[in-house]
TrEMBL record, chain A:
Residues 98-310 form the ABC transmembrane type-1 domain. Belongs to the binding-protein-dependent transport system permease family. GO terms for biological process: transmembrane transport. GO terms for cellular component: plasma membrane. This is Sugar ABC transporter permease. It is found in: Cell membrane. Keywords: Cell membrane, Membrane, Transmembrane, Transmembrane helix, Transport. Its main location: membrane.
Length: 321, 486, 297
C-alpha cells in the first residue's frame, strides 16, 4: 500500500522520515544563503493561512473553553476556570451524544468496511464493464447530503414512501422508518452506506490493483482455486488497505453530523443525536459557546486516543517490513 | 510472509513517475499533450484549464447573476432594495400567511418584498440568530413570544418605540394585554403580537351526540371537573369502541403542553427568577401527572399506545370522539370534512374559575437587530406589520386567536365558528417559563416533556419522572445564562 | 516500508483487466458469472434511489398522491422543475457553489503546491519544522474548530461572504503532502540544470515542476472541489443569507421553506445532485483516481 493517504492521513510520521532520507540523497544543490529565503517565501502563504485558520481557531477554542463565552455576545465573557470541563464531563447529555456517535460508528463501520471490499473483489473479477459498477457505487458520494436526505426521506416517508408501500404489498405494517429509535438507526445506516460506500470501494479497488498479477499466475499454475488465491494472496496483501479503510471510516463516522441532523434532527427525542449536533445545538442554538468549546476539546482528545491506538496497531507490522 | 509491498511499490512508482510514464491515447484527460510537449517547459494545457476555470467563473458572474456573486465576494449588508420577511410557518399556517403577504404586495406595489421560510423551531431561531450575528438580518421576522423574549435578552432584536408604532397606525393598547406583557422586557416592547395559540378540545359532533355528550343546544357538556372529564372520555369510548379522549401523550412536547396547562391551573410554577431557581412543586405536579397517568394506564380513558399522529388521524377520519390539541388543527379537520366543533381546554385543577389557565404561545412580528435601519425603512417595515395585523381575521380563520383586539371584538370574528368558542382562552394563557433555555420548540420542552411522556405512557413511575425533571431543571438553573441580560 | 513513496498516483485500470485472464477453468468461470450476478443486483439497488427520485419528480402531483408507488405515468411533466427553478433560485445556488468551489480549488492548488515544492525540493533551514507543523495539522479534526472559527469569521466581518467558505480550507496539509511526494518523484536534475541556466526558484517551481505534476493538480483539485461543493455544516453556520447560500444549504431551506410538494422536492434533489454526477460521467477515471490517491472523505 502506498497511497498518499497512507502516509499523509494516517501514518502521520512516515512521510517525514521518508523526506529526510530523500533530502540527503537528492537535494545536493548548493544554495546560496540568500536563496534560503526562497524556501520560506514559498511556504509563507501556507503557513500564514495555516496559522490563521487552523492553529488560531484551535488555540482560541482552547481559551474559550475556560470562559463563559456566548455566541450572542462579543468578547470572552468571564473566566470560569475548569467549570466548563467539570460541567461537560458530568453532563449526561454530552456523554449520551458521545455514545450515539460511537454507536453510529460501530453500526456503519462494519458494513462500510465489508461491503465495499466484497464489491471491489467482485468488480476486480469482472473483466469488462467495470466502469458501470464504479459509476453505480461511487456516484452517490458526489450527491450533496441534502439531496440524499430528500431522496431517502421520500422513500422512508410513512405510508406513501416506496418502502412502506412495498411492505404493505407484502402484507406487513409500516416500517416506522424515522419514528422509533431502533428504526431510525437502521434508516440512518442504510442511507449512510448508500451514500458513502464509494470512497472505500475505490480505495479497495486501488489496493487490489497494486497486487501483482504474477502472484495469481503462479498460484494458478500451482493449481490454487479462486478461493485459495483470495485467502492466501488477496486478503493478506490487502491487509494494510483494510486497516486504512477501517481507520478512515472510524474517523469519518465519529464526525457524523450532516445526514442525522437532516434526516431525524437527532430524534426521536434526541435518541440519535450525535455529539457534533450536540455541540452545534449547545454552542450556537443555545448560545453556550464556551461550554460547547470545552466539549469539543474533550471530543478531540477522545478522537486522538482512537488515532493513537490505531497507530500502535498499525506500526508494528509495518516496521517488520 | 511474502513481501510484495516492495515489488508493488516499484510497480506503482513506475506508473507514477511522470517522466517515465508512457503516453496513453486512451487517457486524453490526464495527458492531453504529447510527451515531447510535456517535457518542454511550458504547459499550455494546464494554463488553459486554469484560464478556462477563470473564464467560466467570470462568465457565471456576468451572466445575469452579478449582484449575488458580488455580494458573496465583497460582502454587503442586508439587501437595500428588498423588504425581507422571515417566517417559520409551514403547513396550513404557511399558506394562510403567504396569502396575507400577497395581499400586502397588492396594496404596496412599490415595495419589493421577499419571504424566506425556514424549518420550524430551533433551526429557524438558530438561523435568525446567525443572520443577526452575521449582519444580514431580515427586516422583519416571525417569532414565538417565548422565543422573542430570549432573542431580545440576547440583544438580537431592536425594541419598537410606541411613537413609531403610532406613526404607522398601530396602538399597543389595541393588543391582548397578556401577550403585550410577554412582549415587553424592562418596559420596552420587542414584538408585535399577532395571535395567541392555545390547546383546545375538539369534539366529533356525531359521536358525542350518540354518546349523549351534547347539551340540547348541540354543544359539548361541561367537562370542567376531573370526574366529568373521565366520564365523558369513557362514554365516547363506548361509541367508538377504540379510544376515549385522544391526547398525543407519546409526544414529549404535547405531553408538556397538557401538563403546563393543568399544573398552572393548580397554581404551580416550574422555574422562577428568569430560570435560575427551580420551584417545581412535587405535590401539585404529582397530582397532575397522577391524574393523566390514571387516564392512560388505569382507566383506559386516554390511549397510551397510539402515536400523536395516529390520534390526530383518527379524529380527522371521524373515528375519535374527543381530542385535545392546538387550535391550529382546524384547517386540517375542515379539509377532512370531519363533523366537529370546539370548546376551550378544560379546567380540571384549581378551586375557582379565575384559576383557569391553558398552555399557550403567541406568534409575533419582531425586528431583528439592525443598527443601520433608517427611519424610512423602519416605517416601511412597520407598514408591513400593520398590513399583516390588519388581516388578523384571515389569520384567525386558521385557528389562532387574534391578539389584535379590534379584530377579536369584531362581529365578524364572533361569527367565526368554532373559533370564537375558545377565543376567551387567550386571556388565560400560561406561557412556557421565562428562562433562557425555555420556549416553544426548545430543548427544554422536549426534555421535560420526555419525562412526562414516559410517565403518561407507563415507561417510568411518577416519582421517577419528577426526580428526573428536577435533576435536569437544577442543572439548567445552575448554568450561567449565555444571554446579555439575565 | 510502503510509505517511502506516498506519491502513488495510480491508475485504476479497467481495460487491461484483472488477474483472471489466466487459464480460467470452469470453477473460475462460474465464479465470475456469480460475481456478475451479485454486482448487477447490488448495482441496481444502488441506482434505485436515484431512479426513484427522478421518476417521482417527473410525475404530476395528483398521480403521486393517488399512487405513490406507481412507476409509470401517463402524463410525464417537467412542471416541478420549473417551479423549483423559479422559487428556489437554483441558478443562484449553482453560481454560489460553483464560485466557492472553484476559488477554493485555485487557491488550494496554488498555495499547497508552492509549499509542497519547497519542502520537497529546497533544502532551506526549517523545512523539517514546516513538515512537522503540517503533519500536526492532520491530527486536528476541523470539527473542533467550528465554534472558534465562527467567532473568527464573525470578527473579520466575513460571515455571509464566499471567503468564509474559501479561506479556512486553503491550507490543507494533505494537499501539501500530495504535492510534496509528487515533486520528490520528479528527477532533481531538472532543477539543477535550470539553476545552471540561471532560473530562480520560483520559475523552477512554476515553469519546470508544476507543469509536470498534472496528476497531483488533478487529484487535489478534485477532492478540494468535491469537499467544498458538498460541505454542509460550515456553510450552514456561515451562510445564513439566501443570496450566498450553496446548494446543500439552500436545498435544506427549500425542503421546508416553500411549501413545496413531493414532486417538487424530488426535482430539487435531482437538480442539486445533477452537476457533480454529470461531471463524473465525463471525468470518471480522474475523479476515482483523485479520491484513491488522496483518500479524503
Amino acid at each position: 500500500m502506498s497511497s498518499a493517504t497512507d502516509g499523509a492521513l494516517a501514518g502521520a510520521a512516515a512521510p517525514a522520515t521518508a523526506s529526510r532520507k530523500r533530502a540527503g540523497s537528492t537535494g545536493g544543490l548548493q544554495l546560496k544563503s540568500g536563496e534560503r529565503r526562497v524556501g520560506w517565501a514559498l511556504v509563507a502563504p501556507f503557513l500564514v493561512l495555516y496559522a490563521v485558520w487552523l492553529v488560531g481557531p484551535t488555540l482560541y477554542g482552547l481559551v474559550m473553553s475556560f470562559f463563559n463565552t456566548s455566541v450572542a455576545r462579543s468578547g470572552l465573557n468571564g473566566f470560569v476556570g475548569f467549570q466548563n470541563y467539570a460541567g461537560v464531563l458530568s453532563d449526561p447529555e454530552f456523554w449520551g451524544t458521545m455514545w450515539h456517535s460511537t454507536w453510529f460508528t460501530i453500526i456503519t463501520t462494519i458494513p462500510l468496511v465489508i461491503l465495499p471490499l466484497v464489491f471491489a473483489l467482485l468488480t476486480n473479477r469482472v473483466g469488462r464493464g467495470q466502469w458501470i459498477f464504479r459509476f453505480a457505487f461511487f456516484a452517490p458520494t458526489l450527491v450533496p447530503v441534502t439531496a440524499v436526505v430528500l431522496i431517502f426521506g421520500w422513500m422512508y416517508s410513512a405510508n406513501n414512501g416506496i418502502l412502506d408501500q412495498a411492505l404493505a404489498k407484502l402484507g406487513m405494517g409500516p416500517g416506522n422508518w424515522t419514528v422509533t429509535t431502533g428504526m431510525s438507526w437502521v434508516s440512518i445506516t442504510i442511507l449512510t452506506v448508500w451514500w458513502t460506500i464509494g470512497f472505500n470501494y475505490v480505495l479497495y479497488l486501488a489496493g487490489l490493483q497494486d497486487i501483482p498479477t504474477q502472484l495469481y499466475e503462479a498460484a494458478a499454475l500451482d493449481g490454487a482455486s479462486t478461493f485459495q488465491q483470495m485467502r492466501t494472496i488477496t486478503l493478506p496483501l490487502l491487509r494494510r488497505t483494510i486497516l486504512l479503510v477501517t481507520m478512515l471510516q472510524i474517523l469519518a463516522s465519529m464526525k457524523v453530523f450532516d445526514q442525522i441532523y437532516l434526516l431525524t434532527s437527532g430524534g426521536p427525542n434526541f435518541s440519535t443525536r450525535p455529539v457534533i449536533e450536540w455541540i452545534y445545538d449547545t454552542g450556537i442554538t443555545q448560545y453556550r459557546t464556551g461550554y460547547a468549546a470545552a466539549a469539543s476539546i474533550v471530543y478531540f482528545v477522545a478522537l486522538l486516543v482512537v488515532g493513537l491506538v490505531w497507530m500502535l496497531i498499525n506500526r508494528r507490522p509495518s516496521e517488520e517490513d | 510472509m511474502v513481501r510484495p509491498l516492495i515489488d508493488n511499490q516499484k510497480r506503482v512508482f513506475k506508473v507514477v513517475r511522470p517522466s517515465l510514464r508512457e503516453p496513453r491515447d486512451s487517457d486524453p484527460a490526464i495527458s492531453p499533450s504529447s510527451p515531447s510537449s510535456r517535457s518542454s517547459r511550458t504547459a499550455p494545457s494546464r494554463r488553459g484549464v486554469l484560464a478556462g476555470l477563470g473564464l467560466a467563473a467570470g462568465g457565471a458572474v456576468l451572466s445575469g447573476c452579478a449582484s449575488p456573486a458580488v455580494a458573496g465576494i465583497v460582502g454587503t449588508g442586508p439587501g437595500k432594495d428588498t423588504l425581507q420577511f422571515w417566517s417559520l410557518l409551514g403547513g396550513a399556517d404557511g399558506i394562510v400567511m403567504q396569502g396575507m403577504v400577497d395581499q400586502y404586495k397588492k396594496t404596496h406595489p412599490n415595495v419589493k418584498q421577499q419571504t424566506v421560510t425556514l424549518g420550524w423551531g430551533d433551526p429557524y431561531y438558530t438561523k435568525l440568530s446567525l443572520a443577526v450575528i452575521g449582519n444580514h438580518p431580515p427586516d422583519v421576522g416571525i417569532a414565538h413570544l417565548t422565543r422573542a423574549r430570549i432573542l431580545a435578552k440576547a440583544g438580537l432584536l431592536d425594541p419598537i418605540a410606541e411613537s413609531d408604532l403610532e406613526r404607522n397606525g398601530l396602538r399597543i393598547t389595541d393588543f391582548n394585554p397578556v401577550a403585550v406583557q410577554m412582549a415587553t422586557i424592562n418596559g420596552k416592547l420587542y414584538a408585535v403580537p399577532l395571535d395567541t395559540h392555545v390547546q383546545t378540545v375538539f369534539y366529533n359532533t356525531k359521536i358525542c351526540k350518540q354518546a349523549g355528550l351534547l347539551k340540547p343546544d348541540g354543544t359539548l357538556v361541561d367537562l370542567d371537573s376531573r370526574d366529568r372529564f373521565t366520564e365523558a372520555a369513557l362514554e365516547s369510548k363506548k361509541v367508538t369502541k377504540q379510544w376515549g379522549f385522544g391526547i398525543g401523550v407519546q409526544d414529549p412536547v404535547i405531553s408538556w403542553r397538557q401538563f403546563q396547562g393543568f399544573y398552572s391551573q393548580a397554581g404551580g410554577q416550574v422555574v422562577a427568577d428568569q430560570g435560575t431557581k427551580v420551584v417545581l412543586d412535587d405535590d401539585k405536579a404529582g397530582e397532575v401527572i397522577d391524574f393523566i397517568t390514571g387516564l392512560t394506564l388505569h382507566k383506559g380513558a386516554v390511549p397510551s399506545t397510539a402515536s400523536s399522529g395516529a390520534v390526530f388521524n383518527a379524529f380527522a377520519a371521524g373515528t375519535l370522539g374527543l381530542f385535545i390539541d392546538g387550535d391550529w388543527d382546524i384547517s386540517a379537520f375542515k379539509a377532512a370534512k370531519t363533523p366537529f366543533d370546539m370548546t376551550r381546554f378544560p379546567q380540571l385543577f384549581g378551586s375557582v374559575p379565575t384559576d383557569y389557565k391553558v398552555q399557550a404561545d403567541s406568534h409575533s412580528l419582531v425586528l431583528p437587530r439592525n443598527s443601520g435601519r433608517s427611519r424610512q425603512r423602519l416605517d416601511t417595515t412597520l407598514q408591513f406589520i400593520k398590513s399583516i395585523i390588519s388581516q388578523s381575521l384571515t389569520w384567525g380563520g386558521g385557528g389562532h386567536i387574534p391578539a389584535y383586539l379590534p379584530t377579536d371584538r369584531s362581529e365578524a370574528y364572533k361569527k367565526l365558528k368554532p373559533n370564537s368558542n375558545y377565543a376567551a382562552s387567550a386571556r388565560h394563557a400560561a406561557y412556557d417559563p421565562d428562562a433562557w433555555y425555555s420556549g416553544s420548540g426548545s430543548h427544554f420542552e422536549s426534555v421535560v416533556g420526555g419525562y412526562l411522556s414516559a410517565a403518561f405512557t407507563g415507561q417510568s413511575s411518577v416519582s421517577a419522572a419528577l426526580k428526573n425533571m428536577r435533576r435536569d431543571l437544577n442543572r439548567l438553573a445552575k448554568t450561567k445564562s449565555p444571554l446579555k441580560s439575565a | 516500508m510502503a510509505s517511502t513513496a506516498p506519491v502513488a498516483m495510480r491508475r485504476l485500470d479497467s481495460k487491461t483487466g484483472g488477474p483472471l485472464r489466466v487459464k480460467a477453468d470452469w470453477r473460475s468461470r462460474a465464479f465470475t458469472q456469480l460475481s456478475w450476478t451479485v454486482l448487477v443486483l447490488f448495482g441496481l439497488i444502488w441506482i434505485f434511489p436515484a431512479f426513484w427520485s427522478l421518476d417521482t419528480s417527473l410525475r404530476p402531483e395528483g398521480e403521486i398522491a393517488a399512487h405513490p408507488a406507481a412507476f409509470w405515468s401517463s402524463h410525464w411533466t417537467f412542471g416541478a422543475y420549473g417551479t423549483v427553478w423559479k422559487n428556489a433560485d437554483m441558478l443562484g445556488l449553482y453560481v454560489n457553489s460553483f464560485l466557492i468551489s472553484t476559488l477554493s480549488v485555485v487557491f488550494t492548488v496554488a498555495v499547497c503546491s508552492m509549499a509542497g515544492f519547497a519542502i520537497a525540493r529546497i533544502r532551506f533551514r526549517g523545512y523539517r519544522l514546516v513538515t512537522g507543523i503540517a503533519l500536526a495539522g492532520l491530527l486536528i479534526p476541523p470539527q473542533i474548530g467550528i465554534l472558534p472559527m465562527f467567532r473568527e469569521v464573525q470578527s473579520m466581518h466575513l460571515l455571509n461572504t464566499y471567503w468564509s467558505n474559501i479561506l479556512p480550507g486553503i491550507a490543507a496539509p494533505v494537499a501539501v503532502f500530495v504535492f510534496a511526494s509528487f515533486f520528490r518523484g520528479l528527477p532533481h536534475e531538472m532543477a539543477e540544470s535550470a539553476r545552471v541556466d540561471g532560473a530562480g526558484w520560483f520559475r523552477i517551481y512554476w515553469q519546470v515542476y508544476l507543469p509536470l505534476c498534472r496528476p497531483a493538480v488533478a487529484a487535489v483539485s478534485i477532492f478540494t472541489f468535491i469537499w467544498s461543493w458538498n460541505s454542509f455544516l460550515w456553510p450552514l453556520l456561515t451562510l445564513s443569507s439566501p443570496k450566498v447560500m450553496t446548494i446543500p444549504v439552500g436545498l435544506n431551506s427549500i425542503q421546508t421553506g416553500f411549501g413545496l410538494i413531493q414532486g417538487q422536492i424530488m426535482a430539487g434533489a435531482v437538480l442539486g445532485a445533477l452537476p457533480l454526477v454529470f461531471v463524473f460521467l465525463f471525468f470518471q477515471r480522474h475523479i476515482v483516481e483523485g479520491v484513491a490517491n488522496t483518500g479524503i472523505k
